Amino acid sequence: MIARIWHGITPISKADEYIGHQNKTGITDYQATEGNHGVYFLRRIEGEQVHFLVVSFRVQLSQSRSLQVKITRKRVTILMM
User: Fold this and answer.
1) Where are the beta strands (DSSP E) in 1-81?
2) pLDDT tens-place string over residues 30-77
3) Strand order across the beta sheet in which 49-58 lies
4) CA-to-CA separations, 73 to 44, 45, 59, 66, in angstroms, rounded
């Protein structure tokens, strides 16, 4: 079993928008990926920022790497301010 952990930060003013985006795309992509064994999407408010933590579970490393490329590209787009 492979656990992949991703951490991101967004301003508190954009947190709800980011959660909506992740629920429509990122989390859905994780859940639809072959070999997926679960995903957790967590958030923590700290001052004027919101920290997000995504933990997903896979059986094969190759599946984790292919998903990582997709998410990395989205992350760059999403977190630009």
Assistant:
1) 2-11, 39-46, 49-58
2) 888 878 888 889 999 999 999 999 888 887 655 545 545 454 544 433
3) 2-11, 49-58, 39-46
4) 23, 24, 23, 12
